[in-house]
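Lab manual, section 2.4: Encoding a predicted structure.

Procedure: take the sequence of the chain (90 residues), apply the prediction step described in section 2.3, and record the output as structure tokens. A sample record is shown.
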Amino acid sequence: MNLFWHDWAGLIGVTLVLVAFFLLQAHKLSGQGYPYQVMNLVGAFGILLSLIFGTFNLSAFLQEMAWFLISVYGIVRGVKAKKAAAAPLL
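Recorded output:
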């Protein structure tokens, strides 16, 4: 079995998403924490690469694109919340 770079990207992506979900369920990660969000972001990106450069599947692509965008949203929201909490009161 010959695996190409995009196959490895997809396998690593799936592993990251599943490990993040397991750690969330095991209460080892917070759903609002950066590690969880980044693991989902990078994992979804790896899966997207495997779908774009490997065998394309529209439903899987749409799911992973949503997963990626939701992860971006979570990270941006976390950064904004952190900045708001650190802002001095007038």
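Check your result against the sample. The two ends are 64 Å apart (CA to CA).
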